[in-house]
Amino acid sequence: MSEQEIIGKGTWIDKLASELLEREKSLGRNLDILRVESGLGASGVPHIGSLGDAVRAYGVKLALENLGYKSELIAYSDDLDGLRKIPAGFPDSLEEHLAKPVSLIPDPFGCHDSYGMHMSSILLDGLDSVGIKYEFRRAKDTYNQGLLKEQIHTILQNSSKIGEKISELVGQEKYQKYLPYFPVCANCNRLYTAEATEYIAEEKKVKYRCHDAEIGGKNVKGCNHEGEADITKDLGKLAWKVEFAARWSAFDIRFEAYGKDIMDSVKVNDWVSDEILDFPHPHHVKYEMFLDKGGKKISKSLGNVLTAQRWLEFGSPKSILLLLYKRITGARELGLDDIPSLMNEYNELEDIYFGKIKVDNPAKLTKMKGLYEYVNLLNPPKQSSIHVNYRLLIELAKIFKENRDERVMKKLLDYGVIKNPEPEIENLIKIAGNYADEFDQQEKIQVEIDDATKKALKILVGALGAEEEPEDIQNTIYQIAKSNDVQPKDFFKVLYQIILGTSRGPKIGPFISDIGRKQVAKTLSEYV
Question: What is the pLDDT of residue 49?
């Protein structure tokens, strides 16, 4: 890659920002401020994927600023969305509120003004925890203040044309019969049961009737109320197939990423934005969804949701940002057991950035340094932090359950891993301790081992598992390697890889004594 080909910091984020700028220039649009948007669903528990949408949009905002343009992120909470399903772990009393807008449902935990705000706050707290700056907007306020009224009017005037296009693009015929707008029934407060059939353009009102509807696989009773709703002041919302377009046009949005699960909606919204609202749709990037370790989609109703708050019990904010900024394409299985390797990977990235690890390929070096800068939200520290291998901390935390902080700190000092006890190390010990307490089994680390090393490992397993403790474990390991034609330094390296997932660590003999030689023998035996 030549110098000219490197855009910005050399990452996918810079490439996206650059493509966005090229497109905006070719459209001849005003470049004074380039707004990026992330939509937050407020009907279920926001997980790391929902967080990812906003974090990545923020990355594009940073890249645009780095290229010399003004930008801001709008975090839009769809809190007029109707409740379709009760998320796992939530009270059954929510049943009576099915199909109501989530901002009209009381918070079952009593800490926010509504169920919708409770859910939004979980995501906003996650964004705050990892340092993302955003302007928060709620659907409830957006519709209440009539910010979309021009767009709604135009969409409803063109509803038959839009209904045909939806049928042509995605095969959904519902909007040939009904308007792509749901009023909130004035009688029962339900959203999806009130279906609008006619638009009186000069009065800006829709006629609707509230009838039974299937929502989230359940039949929800309508109240048979017939009424009219004023699109400028009564509560209601556009259908998803057209709402993004209205928002893009009203808020002047130039970039929005989307998950492949809403591809059809985006396809229709792009057309509505371009052809009906005469607003060129924003630049997009499609990302794959995170899956759980069983390969299932992370879903609010399945209850396999992994929140930022849960992650931060065990990992640093930087580990979340690294996960989300590393790449955007490809589906990934994700679980809390990914935290140790991400924590160590961040340290390695920092070592590359500060020149402690050499990378010969200039393009790769630029990209790795760029990734490090994005993980630090383009405000990298002036010097490297103190690095302690996260898996080493987990192993030590397993040994010391009482007075953990000071005893683990003392071991780190004894091993020469750190020179002074620092507050940042205390915090690492705390989260690694949480991890050790919660997950007994470390995931088996993949290590390539040749036959001679395997044979030596087998002998070492016997020596460590014997009743009599070897006199000097360090020397025993050294002798076993020598007598089996394995280079001692290579043998030590394999042991570090198996025990810590890294190629070096504290002096191995005393370390094995600390962990417990029989425990180590058990771990090593899995590799022979």
Answer: 85
pTM of structure: 0.90
- What pLDDT sits at residue 443? 67
Which residues, in sequence order, are CB contacts of 170 under 8 Å at separation 6+?
241, 264, 267, 268
Cβ proximity of 170 and 264 under 8 Å: yes
Residue with tokens 């590799």: 527
DSSP-assigned beta bridge partners for residue 229: 206
d(CA 50, CA 40): 7
- Which parts of 163-232 are beta strand (E)? 181-183, 194-200, 205-210, 213-215, 218-220, 226-230
What are the helix (H) ranges across 376-419?
390-399, 404-414
Backbone φ and ψ for 480, nearest 5 degrees, come out as: -60, -40
- pLDDT score for 444: 74
C-alpha distances out from residue 131 to 48, 321, 442, 527, Å: 15, 10, 30, 41
Could you tell me the maximum CA-CA distance found in the chain, to the nearest angstrom?
A: 94
- What CA–CA distance (Å, rounded) separates 211 from 198? 16
* Residues lower than pLDDT 50 in the chain: 1-3, 301
- What DSSP designation does 254 have? E
Residue 222 corresponds to which tokens in the numbers above? 């309508």
The C-alpha atoms of residue 427 and residue 171 are separated, in whole angstroms, by 53
Cβ-based neighbours of 63, under 8 Å, separated by 6 or more: 8, 9, 13, 14, 16, 17, 18
Q: What is the pLDDT of residue 303?
A: 54
Neighbours of 3 (CB within 10 A): 8
159-169 per-position pLDDT tens digit: 999 999 999 99
Closest CA to 257 of 486, 422, 50: 50
Q: Which amino acid, residue 475?
A: N
Q: How distant, in Å, are the alpha carbons of 235, 263, 341, 441, 463 from that of 523?
A: 61, 45, 18, 10, 14
| 91 touches 107 (CB < 8 A) | no
- For β-strands 205-210 and 194-200, DSSP reports them as antiparallel
Residues linked to residue 227 through DSSP beta bridges, in sequence order: 208
Rounded to the nearest angstrom, the gap between the alpha carbon of residue 18 and the centroid of all alpha carbons in its chain is: 23
Name the β-bridge partners of 200: 205
pLDDT at 2: 45
pLDDT tens digits, residue range 328-348? 877 677 889 899 999 999 999
Q: Report the amino acid identity of residue 224.
A: N
CB neighbour list of residue 355: distance below 8 Å, 6 or more residues apart = none
- C-alpha to C-alpha distance for 267 and 270, rounded to whole angstroms: 5
Retrieve residue 479's tokens. 């002798």
C-alpha distances (whole Å) from 444 to each of 311, 344, 493, 505 are 21, 16, 16, 18
User: For the chain, first and last CA: distance in Å?
Assistant: 43
Q: Is the dihedral of CA 458, 463, 467, 469 positive or negative?
A: negative
Pair of tokens at residue 224:
């048979």
- Helix (H), strand (E) at residue 285: strand 283-287
**Residues in contact with 192: Cβ distance below 8 Å, sequence separation at least 6, in sequence order:** 82, 99, 182, 213, 215, 220
